[in-house]
Amino acid sequence: AGGETFTADLLIGADGARSRVRDKAGIPDGLRDTGHHAIVTTIETERPHGACARQVFMDSGPLALLPLFPEEKGGDGYQCSIVWSAWPHRVEELLALDDDAFGVAVTQASGNALGAARPVSRRFVFPIQERHASSYVGPGLALIGDAAHVVHPLAGQGINLGLLDAAVLAEELGRAREAGVAVDNATVLARYERRRRADNLLMQNAMRGFKLLFERRELPVRWLRNSGLNLVNRLAPARQAFMHRALGRAGDLPRTARPLHPRS
Length: 264
Prior knowledge:
Elements: E1 11-13, H1 20-24, E2 32-45, E3 54-58, E4 61-68, E5 79-86, H2 88-95, H3 99-109, E6 117-119, E7 124-132, E8 137-138, E9 141-143, E10 149-150, H4 158-178, H5 186-215, H6 219-234, H7 236-246
Parallel strand pairs: 1-9
Antiparallel strand pairs: 2-5, 2-6, 2-7, 3-4, 4-5, 7-10, 8-9
């Protein structure tokens, strides 16, 4: 605002889905509408959340209950932030409800997992859009996190992907410094993009597939989906593979993200 100018060898765009850094660099963001809107608010529940995140998948979209402030961090353990993703017409129906009726809707949709729920803040709505930048890097530039890619929030993977971007970029810049190579070297930045782009695209496509799978209403599709998920849940190796991917412990991991005990 004061007209002061800063210069640097490398600018890292970490400024979110509507990244001005990405836009100023002229990098297309590959915007794609998912067909879902999301309601975000805070609820208070009858039973404590136990610092455990919960998610319910419905035809119209997933409902996530994200625990806020457990007792050991100064909270009472009864509040959750919710993200309810659904078709736009379903979102309009939910917004039209008063607080009491909306609390009942949350309680029913969550299968009464935490008892009766009631909202304790305003409800906000935003469209859910996917983005994937055509390039993560440019001359003296690297994009990370939502500035580079945005996935559907149905499995909460956005934060994992962003942290892995940051860790891989830091690792590549550290290697460059140790080798006496400039941090804005095109080869250094290309290596970062190569290590992260494929994994991020895989997760984005997986989230898209999960959304499509759960909104299909045909009985044969629902039977195959539920049977397949039950089978994966019973097979320890398959279950572990899914868990490792969801925890961000699969793929080309940076040293800082590798498990201390890989076999555990």
